[in-house]
Amino acid sequence: MVRISEELKEIIWDNTSYFATASRDGKPNVVQVGLVKVICDDELLIADFFFRKTRGNLEKNPQVSLGVMDMRKLKAYQLKGEAKIITQGELFNEASEILMEKAEIGKKTFQELSELAKGDPKLARRIQHVKDIHKNKKIKAAILIKIKEIYSTMPGEKYEQ
């Protein structure tokens, strides 16, 4: 059994990840996800907020990969596993809590971005658009991923559990 280290748990929580799925016939799809949390030593929970192609792929092919990089630490990882879609119950509720936790963090980020956007109307409109999309949004499902493999993607480094 693989084990997600404490350092990797922190990297996943603090950074945007890239979630890869594939259709039944192997056509790949990658989306960035921020609503990801490690819930035990070998499982991740992702809140499905906008998934369309990703959800369709998961319904036909549960094999997934998640990539994450922390530029401050110069560490990057790929996690591979099998996904399960959950639409109710305790894990669904936990995924909803991830959304609430990240929303609080996002408030500070939007404040910082708004300062940067002064004098840049295009950026200000994008910020407002993203805020509007997320306003009162609820998750559609929780995606539970049982991790089977973990690799460092930094040249010359191995993943240490």
What does this entry show, briefly?
By secondary structure, the protein is α+β, with helices and mostly antiparallel strands.
Summarize the structure in words.
- With 161 residues, this protein is an alpha+beta fold.
- The longest helix has 28 residues.
- The protein contains four helices and seven strands.
- The chain is 37% helix and 34% strand.
- The protein has a domain of 102 residues: Pnp Oxidase, Chain A, CATH 2.30.110.
Within the largest sheet, what's the order of strands? 2-1-5-6-7-4-3
| CATH C-level of the domain at 6-93 and 139-152 | Mainly Beta
Rg, alpha carbons: 17 Å
Q: Give the helix level as a range of percent.
A: 25-40%
Mean pLDDT: 91
Total count of helical runs of at least 4 residues? 4
Describe the sheet with the most strands. Answer: 7 strands, antiparallel
Shape: globular
CATH structural architecture of the domain at 6-93 and 139-152:
Roll
Residues in β-strands, percent: 25-35%
The CATH superfamily of the domain at 6-93 and 139-152 bears the name Electron Transport, Fmn-binding Protein, Chain A
CATH-defined topology of the domain at 6-93 and 139-152: Pnp Oxidase, Chain A
* Alpha-beta classification: alpha+beta
Instruction: Please give the number of β-strands.
Output: 7
Task: Tag the structure with descriptive keywords.
single chain; 161 residues; alpha+beta; Pnp Oxidase, Chain A; globular
